Give the backbone structure.
Amino acid sequence: MTSLPLIPVDPDARGRRPALPPRHLADLDLPGRQALVAELGEPAFRAKQVSNHYFGRLVRDPALMTDLPATARERLAGTLLPTLLTPVRELACDDGATRKALWRLHDGSLVESVLMGYPDRVTVCISSQAGCGMACPFCATGQAGLTRNLSTAEIVDQAVYLAGVAASGVVAGSPPRLSHVVFMGMGEPLANYSRVVAAIRRLVAPAPEGLGLSQRHITVSTVGLVPAIRRLASEDLSVTLALSLHAPDDELRDELVPVNQRWKVSEVLDAAWDYATTTGRRVSIEYAMIKDVNDQPWRADLLGRLLAGKLAHVNLIPLNPTPGSRWDASPKPVEREFVRRLRDAGVSTTVRDTRGREIDGACGQLAAAEDRDTEAPGEERRDRA
Ligand code: SAH
């Protein structure tokens, strides 16, 4: 993976602090929106009206906001709903049940989100950063480095936009209402902590303040930033935590998830169990099965010993080989033996369904590769955590 997820629109801006995107209503709680509306000289209740269009009706076109005076529509929408995400490409596969969206942000950065329809639910996988600084060698996003953090509204707007796509009925065979959000797109959510937590608050606040999703239906996936996991446990939120473990021993995890050099397997698991105890939520342990790297029977046994008796579930992800990578997915018999050993140890384990082969929109493949050949096989996670 050699391409970069950044189109430098202003070469002079390189090396400077990235310009913030315009402020948007999803950056603010309801009182903050009311204050902003008041600054425009409009009555405060307009904040609720615009919020209801955006979060409640999934409408962002001012022409459709007919309960607002025609003279104020453009001004209110221009201030509260500036365009944050410009769709560059939308790709669909699995008969339309999986859709990847590639967005251009105001500074030219590119990020991706994925919409996944199932018979009983609709999930979106969203990005929290443009690029990622965690440098996991098997992940496409990790190869390109971090461009910048996304703003709260840039994070929320991915979900709201795709909720609108789902509501339009294009995802045949799925409910029209977005129900689940996973922070498993580009970026390390806990490295953009305050904006991600604010985004979660918008996603779970009832309309018109927010999207009204259930906290239990939101999953934050992390490489294991221990202080941030502990801080998340102290918020009044009980979202699901997914921990990208990928190896049960420090020697290998130091290589696969380089942040392990800072926080070891034992420390990150301690933080995960404390999170589970505080929130009552089962932690999802993510483990990409990489042929001859982390898939040996002894590693399954070691993982089983670490997790037995804990409030944990293992999600094995067949590795999605990224372009140029030296690694491959484990063969199915090896995978089955790994599952068997974990289950024998009493650990609840599933293998992620794969789908979405053609659209390069899968686990670890979100690299916003506008200029890359997208022929590489892609597989889509089925996140049922
Ligand atoms: N930074 C966060 C979230 C983004 S990645 C994290 O690391 O958890 C979401 C999940 O996809 C993580 O578990 C990640 O390790 C996994 N992943 C990344 N690249 C992958 C690949 N090539 N194949 C399979 N899973 C991958």
Summary: The radius of gyration is 21 Å. Confidence is low (pLDDT under 50) at residues 1-13, 372-385.
